[in-house]
Amino acid sequence: MVSSTEYGSHTWELLLTVDHQYEGVEKEFKLQVTGDLHVGGLMLKLVEKIEIAQDWSDYAFWWEQKKCWLLKTHWTLDKCGVQADAKLIFTTQHKMLRLRLPNMKTVRLKVSFSSMVFRAVSDICKMLNIRRSEELSLLKQSEGTLKKKKKKDKNSKEPATEDILNLCNSPVSSGLPANPGLYSKTMTPIYDPVSGSPASSTITWFSDGSLNEQNCSILALSHPTCSPEMLAEMYQPRTLADKAKLNAGWLDSSRSLMEQGVLEEDQLLLRFKYYTFFDLNPKYDAVRINQIYEQARWAIMLEEIDCTEEEMLIFAALQAQYHVSKLSLSSETQDSTCESEVDEVEAALSNLEVTLEGGSKNNILEDITDIPKLADNLKLVRPKKLALKAIKTYWFVFRDTSISYFKNKESAQGEPIEKLNLKGCEVVPDVNVAAKKFGIKLLIPVADGMNEVYLRCDNEDQYARWMAACVLASKGRTMADSSYKPEVQKILSFLQMKNWTMCSQAASEPENVDMKPECFVSPRYIKKFKSKQLTARILEAHQNVSQMSLVEAKLRFIQAWQSLPEFGLSYYIVRFKGSKKDDVLGVSYNRLIRIDMATGDPITTWRFSNMKQWNVNWEIRQVAIEFDQNVSIAFTCLSADCKIIHEYIGGYIFLSTRSKDHNETLDEELFHKLTGGQE
């Protein structure tokens, strides 16, 4: 019995559960507490009562009903809102988690279940030696993408045992601070820039202890390709609605894993969420480059992104080259690196950085000189309602961000027939190199939707110059911008890659080559061609890339992926305010696109550069965005929580503020300010 003086009217009984692994030791404890007892004092009282000698520093209170951690140990129970009916669990903050990486390898590691996901991903990336962790996030597979796999599992007699890479003894896993995983310009390279393999002499200096040379190779090098059977078991989106399911499960970066229902030993996907790959460098980023390459490869193989037959053969040839190079590397030891090969990789990397960042190393003074113009005879194709196309040649002049066209060159001094302002338009390539077709499809925003215009060029050079000008104009830039010339070169390079697929060089006899073409192309093309036909066409294209190093083949693959019209688009099903039907919203690094769900055609484009503000009405889960020229939109998200789209917009704006001059430190507070929202 407790005396009335000891029990006092202001004390009350609190039931606490301790999550420990000791058998035969009690797990539930009742403590007499007061409202002014702080959380740290409650921990001390509980540990004294448990009477088990161990390190309790990683333990904290998890409030089961409220789904939140009590991490502010100086707060009192009253301030936290804890009362007698509260169920508090004293449990570890770091728990085991399985992560499936873009290369489909599963790693098992200890992660903080109490930190915000943004911080947890940063710690994971330090452990895996991946720089620029802000580009990645954690994805929970939605039920829709798992149904097919479950049906397959029921029919299979023997469950496949998955090879799991165990990284549970790392510094981050133990809750200790890890190496920053970043680099300075004077830092010794930790990867061979040609092969991508770790430099054994430095791997232990600049990466965490658990990521030894063998584990690093598993993450930095690609391994055997997938089989058709493996592809058949995986989720393959057929429609835009199917693609929307892929993006429904992104975790909230401003909340912890535990708060979002993730349990110990659960499996999540670690993926590149934001398609702005900043500052790629093969000397330090072999794991990062390989994981981007793998995410691109699987997106193409599973038809998550559309590509033409020509483009598919380019991707197949680069994959084939990667695996042929890897076999040749493993059969002979390379004591020295050829300088010319390193230079090629550096050149490819420089092109890729220009592609992904939209910048260039050219003199910035070019931007303030006279704005150049283009003038050429081009064919104008206007689709007509009766399924006929009107094709006519005009004299086109490209100046600033507008295209004007005239009846002929002589009349160019007068008023144009029409002037098209390309700022904010969608630019889609319409190219078939084999058929000598070089078209540019322009979808220009007008009051009631999109005005569709096709331009037809005569040759590759003309197409590259006009296409580059259109791409820049859509972003509000002119040809005086320093990125114009690199953009032209990038387009010419991509056209050259397409030429590989129709080159007349004699390919090796398919019978003499051990190649399984179904491992390099998507199921659609496996059905379309016979195996021997595919092998011959892939080998034809492969001859043009046979001299590439491992890393260069991957960088070229990433560059080709980035050149696809649908690159970087994440889809969501939404209902716009005032609309009676559902639409698809595409979120990209610089714009939002409203897409007709039935036809897949873009309806309207809004660029982030024209955005004045955005907010979320958390009560009705509606996102509202205000743009320049009094344009406002509002929509509710049907395929995912509106917080995901809100975070996407804020995340891309946050990534646009990055600079190499900022010592690579992230402003985490700014990220949460832009993405967190006030629920």
From TrEMBL:
PROSITE patterns tied to this protein: FERM_1 (PS00660), PH_DOMAIN (PS50003)
InterPro entries: Band_41_domain, FERM_2, FERM_central, FERM_CS, Kindlin/fermitin, Kindlin_2_N, PH-like_dom_sf, PH_domain
One GO MF term attached to the UniProt entry: integrin binding
Pfam families xref list: FERM_M, Kindlin_2_N
GO biological process: cell-matrix adhesion; integrin-mediated signaling pathway
Organism: Erythrocercus mccallii
Gene3D superfamilies xrefs: Phosphatidylinositol 3-kinase Catalytic Subunit, Chain A, domain 1 (3.10.20.90), Pleckstrin-homology domain (PH domain)/Phosphotyrosine-binding domain (PTB) (2.30.29.30)
Compartment(s) of residence: Cell junction; Cell projection
Name of the featured protein: FERM1 protein
Gene that encodes it: Fermt1
Keyword terms: Cell adhesion, Cell junction, Cell projection
PH domain residues: 379-475
CDD domains: FERM_B-lobe, FERM_C_fermitin, FERM_F0_KIND1, PH_fermitin
Record-level GO cellular component terms: cell projection; focal adhesion
Superkingdom of source: Eukaryota
